[in-house]
Amino acid sequence: MDKEAANVKQEISPRKGIIHLILVHSYLTFFYAIILGLIFDLLMPTKIFNNPIFQYVGILMIMGGTMIIYWAQWSSRKAQKIYTNNVSVEAFQYGAYKYLRSPTYIGLFIMTMGLGFVIDSLFSVIFVMIAHLITKFVSQKQEEKILIKKYGQIYIDYKKKVKNWL
């Protein structure tokens, strides 16, 4: 491959690990939402989720969200091992990604929403919803652009098959 072709390929190819960096920013967005919510609750206390049912639902949401995140990470690692040389739509539809296009983001949303219920923090719940919108319309869009650049029509076909929930 000549030098010019290598430069073009480098411009088109996303940096290795950039998607993980986007994921880290998403995790931090949800973390800051909880922290900011707690600060607001200290300044303006509200006790809207003090019914024990919210505590139980919150615990279930934390566990469910954690399991979705774990399933997504496991699916991703397993698919990389199976489809290392042959990238196809099936590679994207492995495990959790067969049902959800962005299971990690959905798991994060469910988990942090549940945490807001458990700690009885109205503002954390509000900020988690805002964090979800930021993640959906900023982080996920960036990630999808990178995946389209990297995989082209294969990823576009996957997007048509598997909808993005929430």
Number of domains: 1
Compute the average pLDDT: 83
Taking pLDDT < 50 over at least 5 consecutive residues as the criterion, the unreliable ranges are: 1-14
**Computed Rg:** 19 Å
User: What fraction, in percent, of the residue positions are helical?
Assistant: over 70%
The end-to-end span amounts to 44 Å
**H and E order:** HHHHHHH
Binned strand content: under 5%
Query: What is the 3D form?
Result: elongated
The largest pleated sheet is described as:
none
Number of strands: 0
Overview of the structural elements:
76% of the residues lie in helices and 0% in strands. The longest helix has 31 residues, at 52-82. The chain has one domain. Helix 2 (18-43) runs parallel beside helix 5, helix 2 packs antiparallel against helix 6 (122-151) and helix 3 runs antiparallel to helix 5 (103-118). It is mostly helical and 166 residues long.
Keywords:
7 helices; disordered N terminus; mainly alpha; elongated; 166 residues
Q: How is this fold's topology laid out?
A:
Elements: H1 3-12, H2 18-43, H3 52-82, H4 89-92, H5 103-118, H6 122-151, H7 153-161
Helix pairs in contact: 2-5, 2-6, 3-5, 5-6
Summarize it.
The protein has 166 residues and is mainly α. The chain is 76% helix and 0% strand. The chain has helices at residues 3-12, 18-43, 52-82, 89-92, 103-118, 122-151, 153-161.
